[in-house]
Design goal:
This protein folds into 2 domains: 13-65, no CATH class; 70-126, no CATH class. Helix content is 66%, strand content 0%. The chain is built from 7 helices and no strands. The protein is elongated, with a radius of gyration of 19 Å.
């Protein structure tokens, strides 16, 4: 006999901010990923307040406070993928999926040495040459 779980309580502005803070404290994130996470939580749990949820404003406050830095996230993610042997096109796709603007993607594009290192890593993984 299993006990039915109670549905989680709807979110209010304070709880939404607590969720956002816990998310950015645990995961490296971009602004778009935080907004998508909060939108998903709002769909799952609902909203319990007269005013509409201010997801974009909350994300902007986190950017202003330095909790979220899209450029630093992009550099970290791109470096990680390059070390695993992924090429520039795949890295760009991953950053685009994470909501990183094309200007930031171009700004952090790897130089020739990093591209060469990624190609060598891929060659070793695939046992080429």
């Amino acid at each position: 006999m299993t006990r039915a779980r109670r549905p989680p309580a709807p979110l209010d502005p304070t709880r939404l901010e607590e969720l956002a803070l816990a998310y950015v404290a645990r995961f490296a994130s971009s602004r778009a990923k935080l907004e998508a996470y909060l939108a998903r939580k709002l769909r799952e749990r609902g909203w319990d307040s007269a005013c509409p949820p201010q997801v974009a404003e909350l994300a902007e406050r986190f950017v202003a406070a330095g909790y979220i830095d899209d450029e630093a996230y992009a550099r970290s993610k791109a470096g990680s993928l390059m070390r695993r042997g992924y090429g520039m096109r795949r890295v760009g796709q991953a950053l685009g999926a994470a909501g990183i603007a094309s200007e930031v993607r171009e700004k952090i594009a790897p130089d020739e040495a990093e591209r060469r290192a990624a190609a060598l890593t891929l060659a070793r993984k695939r046992s080429f040459g």
